[in-house]
Amino acid sequence: MHLSSSSFGKYGHYRAFALNEIAGKKIKYAGEASCVVCHKSEANHKKKGDHARLSCEICHGAGSRHASYAGNFKSKNLPDSLLLNKPVERQFCARCHQDNLARVKIKCDTINFSAVKLVNTKDHNVADEDTRLPYKCIDCHNPHMP
Amino acid sequence: MKLINKNANRRSFLKAGLFLAGGAAATTLLKPYNAIAVVPEEPKGEKPWYGIGIDIDKCIGCGSCAKSCKIENDVPMEPFFFRSWVEQYTILNDGSVKVESPNGGLDGFTQSVPDKDVFKSFFVPKMCNHCSKSPCTQVCPVGATFESPEGVVLIDEKYCIGCRYCIQACPYGCRYLHPKKKVADKCTLCYHRIKKGMQPACFANCPTGARIFGDLHDKKSELVRFLKDHTCMVLKPHMNTGAKLFYNSLSAEVR
Amino acid sequence: MEEFKHLFEMLPKVQGYIYPNEVDLNWSILIVLYPYITGLVAGAFILASLERVFKVKVLKPTYHLALLTALSFLLVATMPLINHLGKPMRAYEIMITPHLTSAMAIFGFVYLWYLMVVLLLEIWFDYRKDVIIWSNQSTGIKKIIYKIISLGTTDISPKAVALDNKMGYIITIIGIPSAFLLHGYVGFIFGSIKANPWWSTVLMPVIFLFSAMVSGIALVMLIYMIVTRIRKMKIDMACLDTIAKYLFYILILDFTLESLDQIHRIYVSEESFEIINLLISGKLYITLFIFQVIMGTLIPLFTLGTLQFYKPADKTRKTIYLIISSLVLFGIFFMRWNVVIGGQLFSKSFYGFTSFKISLIGTEGYLMAFIWLVIPLAILSFLLWLLPPWKKQEEEYDPEST
User: Fold this and answer.
1) Residue C116 C-alpha, separation from nearest chain B C-alpha, in angstroms
2) Per-residue DSSP letters for C49-93?
């Protein structure tokens, strides 16, 4: 009779075991609490700036593997596969800070949601005037305390 | 004598056949009607009943939600498979509506209409509405998709036959056929995270707090407060899907 | 990357905005075939029942042919479906844990009911006597097959044969609503999807039913002409004229219903109206207006209508019937196409369209679809060889039974 599964129909018209199977999937984003365990100074830094409410993993990527294995290594000897992103490109900052009327909220002047500073990343201090070397955003702005 | 026996045999064979088939037909005719007529009820009591709030006013279209969703849930990276994506709506001065979602917003947005032509513009993050009367669950022929006791619509990937009826039935376009697994796939509200007390990935990685996850049964939850303080709307309310994804500042153009 | 090539090719063809998951069409040509083939079954059966239940004796030459045609196509009806599943090996689940709120879940039962109880039983009772006679006359494999088909029965006394006839009659009576159920139900699978305004109409089951009858009648008409030609026999024109008459009447009904559906759509002009308007005047223009409406409906309607008043020579009529039945079959195929494919071309956001490209090979290509259409014809040829209707003995002891 139970060609399907013994758990079929326990809670509804489905395999009840599926609930545990789905719940048992691996987590990729560990959450800020895991980062703070080691990266105390960065965390303290960030707390004081405009990015205080941002989770570390928004910029640095999913850190679950990094967090669970990093403790096994001396800080400088982490294999590349466990390293997280340190995005440095203008393009990355532009994801949030590039001028866009949808970010300005022109339709609404009562709610002052101005936490996000907008700039046209295509012409804002693109390169050094003398040396012509391109600037990165983080040359001037500390991403942890912009 | 012989003749009668033959006939009797044939008759009983026929009777059994008709009986079986009649039973099947009766179930066919009666039960679905019964089952359709009875709208699934929201369980009462202490148990969590999860819902979602999205504040369109706070969304800056960075695409972190869409990106983290793909990573957290191993969603294929090709731009045809999304559990969570962001749309930019631009209403032009001439009244036309332009909707964009390049790669689901995963790589961020670039304003494509010059400022002078824009009447208004905003981002709308989309994801499964985890409907309490979900049409996708209703149409699954085998019971491979279902609503969990917490009100999360899930797919049993070991049971799905890949008929894609659910994909057709979802009014919000939130389902796709997984190209490798060949079964339907969708947002699980990060069931593996919420069962451990964590936020779903798209919520945890939203920089502006535009996404609010919570328990609709817990009257003190952030979500319930959000619903109380804002005028919220669901997508396609005329579909009566019992959607549990509530948007603040939802414009009429959004579909 | 290779497996996504066709999707990347599709991306630039997207018009307007579609949800990102909507680029690919989920139901392809195999799902076009499914209602097409089931429709042919239901239609052919209903034509057969006209002779049996409603005593339209002039249709006698096509009675068994229609039944065998229905059976040949019904045997294949589920194959495109299973072929199309992402996980075909799990298809059995639909029988062991049918989710009764799903319109699709019941298909397995409706199908089995129709196959086992209606078609197989009816054909068995119809042929039982002949099969027994044939098994005595033939030798070798054929004899063994006849023995198996007769299920061990040997009684061909008038009394037993009379019972056969009675059972056949009862089953046909059960069969008519069953045929309605089978195909109306297929329409409900589409009609019940509220998310899709192109499908979601209460008329869908009825439209499917009448278009099924139209296609089934046209098919039997065509097959009758071809088979008779192959056998080098004379075509019974009275029979053909009567089939054409029924085809004409039901085509009128079908066309009326479909027009009603469209008129209603235009008049109520709901939220989805603009996108559907764009759909039928754009992407579906050729398959809907040219193929389905003009070639598949209006030309046959006009021609068959004319034939009701004016009868040209037999030879001319034969040619006309040949063309008309082919046109109707062509038109109904595209009616299914327009429903299934058309319903997926526009986005559920109503802001844009995706496009549909079908390849020649692959499980969802033209070739595969063609194979699923040829297999029933092969089965039919086999059945006609095994159970030739024209070799059946005339039932002279009929009056006694009913």
Assistant:
1) 8
2) HHHHTS--GGGHHHHHHHHHHHHHHHHHHTHHHHHH-SSGGGTTH
